């Protein structure tokens, strides 16, 4: 990289980091405020429908977003052609997906109340899908500054949405209507911004449609199988337990997702970069994978360990005491995520062209997860669902170890293991000794900072950030 490329990379990384940080914070506060205002039952209804809708959104997306991002990142001149054809594909697929979603909910034995809410909630499918396409367009062309602008706009309108819910008595159906309106406004804003830099009109070019749909199939299959082992437990819970249990389980899931958001943000930001550098030079790619894995561990493991050992305190502070029933599930989910994000092989493999292997691992995980959930949920409820998720992630990690070893890609190092032992020991002492908690927390933070410095900043031997980035 020359100096100009380095500066551009750093700026775009910061823009994308901030925009995704805003997204995660908003999603967290949406869950938090809805949970506090409507209680576990309606909270469960909201996220049960959201979970079902996410499945049909993924089908309508067809894995095209990831392929679109990868191809436009390499050949920016394809933007208008790809954008207009993908937009046409998505409009058709989302109409079909909405019909199938409502059919599924209607025949699945849910109450009339949930069916009615689903018909309203489903109207947000198209705005969410098209907004994601527009955001991927900004990202693929390196316009992360525009993505950040969209995020601030989203922050403003979602803030108004949350303010209204928090300070006024609002029933769950009105919350869902406001959700649909909020997503529609965001889609309109993205359309307005993108139209200034691109020519947007629907196109049907059969060769491009065929190419996109064929090449995206493994991205679609991987995404769908990932959805199964991440979210199918919520749907199974809704059939074997109460909606209250779904609400408690979703509360635990939201906390674990927030716990790993720093690692997720970094990986999402670096996906195109890892892909491009590995294609340019496998050695450079391996070097970047090692760095990304080390930093992800530093960002994710410490937070997850705190959540695991202080699960009741976390739930009480975030949602209130009525959600303490999710404590054990939160511990088990935290352990599962601890395995999955150390290091994040499932995200790295598709970035370097091994999406087919990634799909096979995800398919095995999904099938296993469904079987375990069907066995455990009827007997143990949300704890059974959390055990199924934990075992799935542990099994996936073992599979990834084998694949990375065969591909001669870097995985766990002695440094990672030593870091884990040190922070684990510290958080255990914090948990059992009230007198040690304050100073232990300070030591905990210092250990993490020292580890990040060791895995990242030691490359800046001449105190120049440019020297490190020029290496890659």
User: Helix segment count?
Assistant: 20
Secondary structure tally: strands? 0
Provide the number of structural domains. 2
Gross morphology: globular
**What order do the helices and strands follow?**
HHHHHHHHHHHHHHHHHHHH
Quickly give the structural class: mainly alpha
State the major sheet.
none
The percentage of residues in β strands lies in under 5%
Mean pLDDT: 77
The N- and C-terminal alpha carbons lie at a distance of: 7 Å
Indicate the radius of gyration in whole angstroms.
22 Å
Describe the structure.
The chain is mainly alpha-helical and 472 residues long. It folds into 2 domains: 215 residues, no CATH class; 255 residues, no CATH class. The protein has 20 helices and no strands. The protein is globular and about 65 Å long.
Supply the key terms.
472 residues, 84% helix
What's this model, at a glance?
This protein has helices at 3-61, 64-74, 79-107, 112-121, 125-140, 144-167, 172-195, 206-215, 217-240, 243-259, 261-280, 282-309, 311-318, 327-340, 345-351, 355-380, 382-406, 414-432, 437-455, 465-471. With 472 residues, the chain is an all-alpha fold.
Topology at a glance:
Layout: H1 3-61, H2 64-74, H3 79-107, H4 112-121, H5 125-140, H6 144-167, H7 172-195, H8 206-215, H9 217-240, H10 243-259, H11 261-280, H12 282-309, H13 311-318, H14 327-340, H15 345-351, H16 355-380, H17 382-406, H18 414-432, H19 437-455, H20 465-471
Helix pairs in contact: 1-3, 1-4, 1-5, 1-6, 1-9, 1-10, 1-11, 2-5, 3-4, 3-5, 5-7, 6-7, 9-10, 9-16, 9-17, 10-14, 11-12, 11-15, 12-14, 12-18, 12-19, 14-17, 15-16, 16-17, 18-19
């Amino acid at each position: 990289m020359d100096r100009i490329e380095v500066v551009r990379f750093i700026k775009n990384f910061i823009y994308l980091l901030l925009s995704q940080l805003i997204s995660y914070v908003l999603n967290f506060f949406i869950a938090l405020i809805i949970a506090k205002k409507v209680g576990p039952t309606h909270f469960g209804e909201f996220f049960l429908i959201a979970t079902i809708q996410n499945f049909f959104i993924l089908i309508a997306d067809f894995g095209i977003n990831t392929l679109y991002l990868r191809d436009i990142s390499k050949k920016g001149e394809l933007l208008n052609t790809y954008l207009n054809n993908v937009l046409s594909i998505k409009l058709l697929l989302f109409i079909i997906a909405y019909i199938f979603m409502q059919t599924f909910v209607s025949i699945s034995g849910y109450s009339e109340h949930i069916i009615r809410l689903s018909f309203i909630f489903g109207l947000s499918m198209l705005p969410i899908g098209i907004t994601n396409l527009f955001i991927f367009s900004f990202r693929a062309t390196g316009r992360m500054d525009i993505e950040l602008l969209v995020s601030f706009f989203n922050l403003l309108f979602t803030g108004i949405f949350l303010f209204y819910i928090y300070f006024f008595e609002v029933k769950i159906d009105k919350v869902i209507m406001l959700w649909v309106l909020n997503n529609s406004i965001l889609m309109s804003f993205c359309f307005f911004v993108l139209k200034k830099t691109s020519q947007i009109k629907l196109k049907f070019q059969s060769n491009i449609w065929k190419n996109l749909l064929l090449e995206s199939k493994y991205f679609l299959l991987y995404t769908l199988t990932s959805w199964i082992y991440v979210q199918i437990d919520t749907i199974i819970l809704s059939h074997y337990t109460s909606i209250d249990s779904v609400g408690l389980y979703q509360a635990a899931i939201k906390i674990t997702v927030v716990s790993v958001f720093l690692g997720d943000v970094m990986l999402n930001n670096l996906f195109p970069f890892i892909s491009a550098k590995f294609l340019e030079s496998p050695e450079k790619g391996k070097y970047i994978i090692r760095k990304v894995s080390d930093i992800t561990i530093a960002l994710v493991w410490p937070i997850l360990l705190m959540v695991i050992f202080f699960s009741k305190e976390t739930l009480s502070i975030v949602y209130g005491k009525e959600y303490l029933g999710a404590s054990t599930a939160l511990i088990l989910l935290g352990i599962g995520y601890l395995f999955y994000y150390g290091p994040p092989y499932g995200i790295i493999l598709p970035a370097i062209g091994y999406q087919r292997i990634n799909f096979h691992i995800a398919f095995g995980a999904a099938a296993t997860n469904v079987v375990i959930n069907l066995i455990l949920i009827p007997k143990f409820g949300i704890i059974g669902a959390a055990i199924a998720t934990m075992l799935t992630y542990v099994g996936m990690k073992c599979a990834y170890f084998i694949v990375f070893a065969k591909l001669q890609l870097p995985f766990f190092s002695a440094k990672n293991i030593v870091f884990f032992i040190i922070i684990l020991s510290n958080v255990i002492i914090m948990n059992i000794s009230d007198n040690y908690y304050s100073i232990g927390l300070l030591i905990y933070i210092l250990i993490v900072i020292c580890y990040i410095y060791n895995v990242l900043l030691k490359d800046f031997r001449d105190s120049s950030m440019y020297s490190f980035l020029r290496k890659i």
